[in-house]
Amino acid sequence: MSHYKLLYFILFIFSVQPSAAQGKKNPAVTIVVPIATHTRITFGAEKLKQALTKAGYQTTITQNIKARDKQQIVIGLWTDNTIKQVASIYALTIPTDTIKEGFMIRKDGSKPFLLAGTDPSGALYGCLELATQITETGKLPEQISLTDKPEMVLRGTCVGVQKPTYLPGRDVYEYPYTPETFPWLYDKALWIRYLDMMVENRYNSLYLWNGHPFASLVRLKDYPYAVEVDDATFKKNEDMFRFLTEEADKRGIWVIQMFYNIIVSKPFAEHHHIKTQDRNRPIIPLIADYTRKSIAAFVEKYPNVGLLIALGEAMEGVGQDDVDWFTKTIIPGVKDGLKALGKTTEPPIVLRAHDTDAPRVMKAALPLYKNLYTEAKFNGEALTTYTPRGKWAELHRTLSNIGTVQIENVHILANLEPFRYGSSDFIQKSVQAMHSVYGANGLHLYPQASYWDWPYTADKTTPRLLQLDRDWIWYKTWGRYAWKSGRNRPAEVTYWGNQLAEKYGLPLDKGKDVLEAYEQTGEISPKLLRRYGITDGNRQTLTLGMLMTQLINPFRYGLLTLLYESEAPEGEMIIDYAEKDWKHEKHIGETPVQIADEVIEHGKKAVEAIDKAAGAVTKDKAEFDRLKNDVYCQNAMANFYAQKARAALSILRYKYSNDVRDLDKALPLLESSVNHYADLVKLTKDTYLYANSMQTKQRKIPMRGVDATYITWEEMLPVYQKELAHFKHSIDSLKSTNKAVVKAPILLKPVTVTIQSPQVETYSLEKGQRVFTDTAATISGFAPELKNLKGLKLAKAKMQSERTSLTFTATEPVKLLVGFFNEKNPNYLPTPELETDASANDYGQSEIKISNAILVDGLPPVNVHAYSFKAGKHTLNLGKGACLLLGFMDGNQEIPIFDAAGVAPDLAGNKKNIDWLFE
Q1: Which of 282, 526, 662, 910 is close enough to 654 for a disulfide, judged by CB 3.0 to 4.6 Å?
Q2: The pTM is what?
């Protein structure tokens, strides 16, 4: 062999055989699992093997321990014989602390690895923890002693099987499971990716939200016509659900199917000539039987799937009906399913404490069923504070003290969408508050944005981005702190700095700059909503801004005071601050001025931080640019709100001073606000499809969102420009005349309808007129616009004890004006609120038309709402509680929206209405 051939042969040998160094670095590793192992341990072992193989280890999985082999990883439960053998080598005894999902990893010297779980999920999480360490370091640790367990019992995410708009011919929440409506629902590869994300972040529960899923998943012998999908789709649904539950179980994830009460399927409703849902309909035997049998069939078919029950929204709120429905229909349905299976192990039931008296329901239910959980919204349908307080905090503590697990629902996030959110500091403090303030021990996490448009984000990209990818930091952050909330903050800054540095190919200091941008923007939307907002619900799209009248007269728009009383630190609303300022009274807590200053500073710091990192990005630049644009968007939004709030305070001062100079001071502030909004339009025009993913009539603030209108900033800019122009004109008018011209009231035109039931007498809307047949209460003041109408006189006591129902026939479009007493009291009919009642705007009734429209001796002031009807026969079902039926008017006449206390002397007190400055 020639010299060159010999050299070539030697090089070839070394090229195909591992070097001595490589052999030392990457020895063979054996993973040992029990003989009859759980699917979760098998799954965890495979994930561990993948990490080892990627790190260069030759890895096999076996069921037998080899003597004197230190490169073994023995996996199992503390009760497994193989684990006991290895534990004896370490002189360990089986721990008495057998908290669910806990695990231990131990490795010392020449001894094999011990990876023991208190249950299969614990062993799975131990595998994932070790796999993570191998991935981060590139090798197996030579020595480790680690014990870990989760703090929260339930750590879940949710997927809404719902849409941004209604399906044709259907109502809210009514979305059958079909490939046409939800193609992603049948995408198994997408589900695998999502479930892998969940287990990677240690989530153990997946909630599927849908109004009435049963008619897509089960067939009932007694109601075969109730199924609302064809046979082929039904089989696909069975396959999908079976696949999803099996894959979830491998990852230690419990699937929970949510449903609303009371909703029936569309074909069932049509067969029986009833509505699919009617909040004010009493419980009837037919619907109770159908629902009970639907639940029984579901439990029999899917005994390992939990149920999440929403008693509110689609049935009458707080009351005995809730208790009866839960204890006489739902729980018996679950028990019927178990009986058919011959099983006694109760699947978990989660009671949603929304629009119901959950403590009362639980008190009645616990003697009948033990495996119960409760759930309530953390900050309503937004993220506003990590210092919750007041009545809302008391409700959560009451639920936590029942003795079952209370789950905190981070719900909808209407104030965050559509921009990215990743403030680990805010989220960590929120989870800590769930424990320390609420006493809760579970998390139910909504998507960060675009809940109604799952699986996509609102970003204007081709192809569309997936929430799963874009909002990775949202899921990772909540999951991390649900597992352990008390992590050291400086260490967390380094952890998240590293995560972001890896994401964008940055050095650590620049990764921390990205984190700083997230932290600063993370304060903007929460602070804005809790100090300036109307509601914590999804009827308000915070990022689209607010009208000036919404800032200076929020009660006109159905202000949800809970937002200020419980879901914000102690402080003042804009209207409170202005009054105190005029009276030279001491301000309390967090003020509107303070927040204006703070959000501007947050925006400035966020822009500075993201700009520092921008030049160093080497990975995923397109996504970084989108994140950077989001930071700029939130900065513009912060300045828009801050300047508008400052203008509002000056305008409200005019309410007390009558000095036009106060309006002059507001003008440049309002102009600045509109300019910042124009910047926001430029930043979003080519980057976002919409601001809000719920694009139905439920959207009310800043503008009504009917038929997917007013969903972009570009649509809103002319509204704010018009508002500014009107304000300028109002100032000019005030300066050109010394005396304001009093406008004549616009009289509402009465119409006659034929009332079939009940028999009623009418009364004129005049002072001294009695408004109920069984009391002497009379009108002491009223808005003159109402004077031509004829009220319907009913018995107050009957309205309080029974639901009010009115059947009538109209020959033309009409509006029925209903007066709601402005006080939360079981004796009064509750005001239609979209926060609690999804059907609260079915007749266009959710908006107050005339505030403080009528005064009745001895009763609270009355706000007027309008229910619209087409020509024809109608039955209107109202709930229990006294209200005023103020008569029918021309359905085509527009009702001027105003606060009568500001224009009618006998209603005014000392409150002047200044909404006319803007409309």
Answers
A1: 662
A2: 0.90
